[in-house]
C-alpha cells in the first residue's frame, strides 16, 4: 500500500506539471502544423484553416474538462464509501483519476469535438470536409487537457474573442500581423493559464 505524504505529492505534481506544459508546446509546434497541412489539402484560405484549429483546441479543452468533472463526481461517490484520509476526498479522487487515466473515454470526446466543429457557424468551409481528418490533433489536445485537470491547481487555456485588444502578456503576434494594429483579428493558438497567470503565451493575428 502506497503511503501518502504532502511532500511526495508536491514533487510528483511539479514533475507532472512540467511534462504537461512541455507537451502543450510540442502540440503547438508539431501536431498543429500537421493539422494545418491536412486541412490545406481541402481549404485554400489559411485564415479559415487557422480558425478551425483554434476552435478545435478550445473545444477539446472544454469537452475534456467536462469529461473529467463527470468522472470525478462518480469517483468521489465511490471513494466516499470507504474514505478515511489522510488526504481530502477531493484530492483522493483526483489522485485516483491521475493513476487510472484509462477510465477516460477519449474516443467519445473526439466525437463530441468533431460534432461541435460541424455545428460551428464561424467555420466557413466546404460542407463535405470531414473534421475527423484532424483527429490526431484533437486526441492529443483532449488527453492533454484531461491530464491537466489532475494537477493541483489545474492548468487551463484562456478563451479569446475576435476584436479584443491585443494583450502582449498573453499572445505573440503572428509573423504576418500588422504590428501597428491594436486589435486581434483572430486567434491561432490559446495561451496556457494557471490561477489566472500566463504560463505559455498563445498566438494571435492583428490586421486591419
UniProtKB/TrEMBL annotation:
Intracellular or extracellular location(s): Cytoplasm; Mitochondrion matrix; Mitochondrion outer membrane
Keyword tags: Coiled coil, Cytoplasm, Lipid-binding, Membrane, Mitochondrion, Mitochondrion outer membrane
Top-level division of the source organism's lineage: Eukaryota
GO molecular function: lipid binding
A GO CC term assigned to this protein in UniProt: mitochondrial matrix
Record-annotated Mitochondria-eating protein C-terminal domain positions: 17-206
Keyword Acetylation: no
GO biological process terms on file: mitochondrial protein catabolic process; mitophagy by internal vacuole formation
Main location: cytoplasm
Family assignment from sequence similarity: Belongs to the MIEAP family.
Protein name, UniProt field: Mitochondria-eating protein
Organism: Chaetorhynchus papuensis (pygmy drongo)
Gene: Spata18
Amino acid at each position: 500500500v502506497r503511503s501518502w505524504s504532502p511532500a511526495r505529492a508536491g514533487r510528483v505534481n511539479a514533475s507532472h506539471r512540467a511534462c504537461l506544459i512541455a507537451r502543450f508546446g510540442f502540440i503547438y509546434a508539431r501536431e498543429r502544423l500537421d493539422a494545418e497541412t491536412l486541412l490545406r489539402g481541402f481549404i485554400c484560405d489559411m485564415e479559415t484553416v487557422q480558425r478551425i484549429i483554434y476552435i478545435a483546441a478550445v473545444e477539446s479543452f472544454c469537452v475534456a474538462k467536462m469529461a473529467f468533472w463527470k468522472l470525478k463526481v462518480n469517483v468521489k461517490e465511490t471513494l466516499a464509501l470507504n474514505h478515511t484520509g489522510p488526504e481530502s476526498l477531493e484530492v483522493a479522487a483526483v489522485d485516483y483519476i491521475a493513476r487510472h487515466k484509462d477510465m477516460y473515454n477519449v474516443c467519445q470526446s473526439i466525437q463530441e469535438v468533431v460534432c461541435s466543429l460541424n455545428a460551428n457557424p464561424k467555420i466557413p468551409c466546404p460542407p463535405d470536409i470531414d473534421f475527423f481528418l484532424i483527429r490526431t490533433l484533437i486526441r492529443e489536445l483532449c488527453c492533454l487537457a484531461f491530464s491537466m485537470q489532475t494537477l493541483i491547481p489545474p492548468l487551463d487555456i484562456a478563451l479569446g474573442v475576435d476584436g479584443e485588444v491585443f494583450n502582449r502578456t498573453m499572445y505573440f503576434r503572428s509573423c504576418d500581423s500588422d504590428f501597428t494594429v491594436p486589435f486581434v483579428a483572430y486567434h491561432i493558438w490559446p495561451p496556457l493559464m494557471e490561477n489566472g497567470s500566463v504560463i505559455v503565451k498563445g498566438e494571435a493575428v492583428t490586421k486591419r
